[in-house]
Amino acid sequence: MSVLTNAASRTDILNRLKRAEGQLRGVQRMIDEGEPCLKVAQQLSAVRKALDSTFVRMTVCFIEQELDARLEGSNAEKSSLDAMMEEMETLLARMN
User: Fold this and answer.
1) pTM value?
2) Cα separation of 18 and 11, whole Å?
3) One-letter-per-residue 3-state SS of the chain
4) What is the pLDDT of residues 25-79, one digit of tens each?
């Protein structure tokens, strides 16, 4: 089983998860304080979107890592791969 080895990508994903965790704690606090259901639902939607985008980012990072390990090509090929991966991440994010 593969693990995410790129330190910058791991940091990015962990930071995204920490933000989502903070949002989720905010939702818990809202429920404790008796906030209206509509406001709670809006915040839950934001948490869900944050987790979905984190999943997409992690998936793209994993694919980049695996392709890079298997394609030991020139810098031009890696540059082309980077551009393709950015486009793929944008497309996947729109599916949410």
Assistant:
1) 0.78
2) 10
3) CCCCCCHHHHHHHHHHHHHHHHHHHHHHHHHHCCCCHHHHHHHHHHHHHHHHHHHHHHHHHHHHHHHHHHCCCCHHHHHHHHHHHHHHHHHHHHCC
4) 999 999 999 999 999 999 999 999 999 999 999 988 888 888 877 777 667 777 7
